[in-house]
Amino acid sequence: MPAFADPRATTADPPLADSYRALLRGCELDGRGIAPTSQQAPESPAVLERELPMIDLQRLRSGDARERKACVAAMASAASEWGFFQVTGHGVGREVLEEMRREQARLFRLPFDTKEKAGLLNGSYRWGNPTATSLRQLSWSEAFHIPLVSISGEDCDYGKLSSLRGVMREVAGAMSRVADTVAGALAENLGHEAGSTFPASCDGTTCFLRLNRYPACPFAPDTFGLVPHTDSDFLTILCQDQVGGLQLMKDSRWVAVKPHADALIVNIGDLFQAWSNDRYKSVEHKVVANSKAERFSVAYFLCPSYDSPVGTCAEPSPYEAFTFGEYRGKVQDDVKRTGKKIGLPNFLKRSTLDAQKPHRPSLCS
């Protein structure tokens, strides 16, 4: 059994080691005192580090129509093949992102009790995974998952971190503009009316900003910083530091994403995959814990209102009609019931499910 760090050694980190210990002890041990493979933390085979497709958003603002069209085509190709891509020329200044990183570090250095119980940022703090029943479901991380309406609200509790309010507003606004630009271009590529807002049901009252910290983990590389998942939104804009650890599924294997200092990462969410009739892919991804360095990231989630129909770019769609609220509710139910997210397959039309079943020849054939 690995050695455990004393949870009293720091008052800032959440008690992740305690969760790890409890889950490890909860496993049914065989005669050798080894937890069954199904309960152990996942093995980490060597993965290939790859550069995501890199796209300069300045080309969208080019006066050359062919240049703009080529930029949109490059984004659409990456969204179809990878589900992820990087963007430069996004207009989010390095200075404000560096300031966000400093403020983020100050926020997460606060005592754990302050983060968890004091209502900081309107009680948006979360850590680990309270529903985890095995090491495979434990995320070695902490985060503040904040609705944009709370960031802008005067009643949001920033504690003594008064300077955090301004930089969060600036980063959220800048990332929102990037998300709107990219989503609009990708939708236009599939026939959505050029110049109109997409998705129409996404605004400052429905989207989220998430501040993430992944503490150094003594059990790495056999621990997830964030468990494998797909995003349940339309689009995610991510700013990560240079520590690395983000991996995505490509061609049935995990690929490590090489950090790029000046780029933001864009990834397609489940709702965009559904709206695009599976033309764009919401790809499974994870974060791998680091044994020596903590990692920070900021993510912006482009989400509609809960009562908004997700819709489709064209009929026929492989999916039944559903709202974002129905989708979120089903995801939460599945996680409680099975310990994992099922997602879009829950909403496939019966005809689509039948078409995906393997053909079984009859006795007369």
Describe this structure as you would to a colleague.
With 365 residues, the protein is of the alpha+beta class. Helix content is 30%, strand content 18%. The protein is built from nine helices and 13 strands. The chain has an eight-stranded mixed beta sheet. The protein has a five-stranded mixed beta sheet with strand order 1-10-9-12-7, with no helix packed on it. Helix 2 (65-81) packs across helix 6 and helix 3 (94-108) packs across helix 6. The N and C termini lie far apart (57 Å). The model is unreliable at 1-9, 28-42 and 359-365 (pLDDT under 50).
Give the gist of this structure:
The chain has helices at 16-26, 65-81, 94-108, 112-117, 148-152, 162-189, 270-275, 324-338, 350-356, and strands at 48-50, 54-56, 84-88, 125-127, 142-147, 208-214, 224-229, 235-240, 246-250, 253-257, 264-268, 285-288, 295-302.
